[in-house]
Design a protein that fits this description.
30% helix; five-stranded mixed β-sheet; Collagenase (Catalytic Domain); 5 helices; binds zinc ion; three-stranded mixed β-sheet
Amino acid sequence: MSIVLVPIGRVNPAEMRWLQESLKEYFSADVVVGKRIPLAATAWNPARSQYDAEMVLESLLLSGEAAGCDRALGVTDADLYLAGMNFVFGIANRGIAIISQHRLRQSFYNLPEDPGIFRRRAVVEAVHELGHTFGLAHCENPRCAMHFSNTIADTDRKGPAFCPVCRSWVATVRNSGRPDRAGAPRCGVGGEGPTEGNEMARFSRKPE
Ligand SMILES: [Zn+2]
Ligand SMILES: [Zn+2]
């Protein structure tokens, strides 16, 4: 199985490499870092000073960087939102996902910077979003990577590993010979995808 990590906008290359190594380990997959794509100017919402997550995800799909892989994960430093929500840590749909590093830094919460905490959060969010691309829904186990995070405290409570139930689901999907299960098209291919992995209701600290 192959996963491509795509930097979107300006992203620290060292963080991409670290994520690459971590995801190799967690998914036992080939993980490569793809070519950087720009943050879509059309996704910028000046009134909110945030980027529209769905439009950024769409730009990843259209860029072609996700083509030829089983899964694609875009990584951006931009703050993301969805209509009706004040922010999202990430979204997933149609076999591809994106995460935002913006709210993973301690400095965002007016705390001293901690690179270790930042990296742990990044891998938790990456595993979570990739989990959705396997058709996993949110998990009730608060320690499981697939547990719903409403705040960064929830992210810190869980680990980057799947619980046994979620882990066996991912293994089943992979062993089925269809790592692109649930009708999810291969990366970079359009068409109707599953909605179960859609993050529409996620991470809303404060619905608008
Ligand atoms: Zn679980
Ligand atoms: Zn989720």
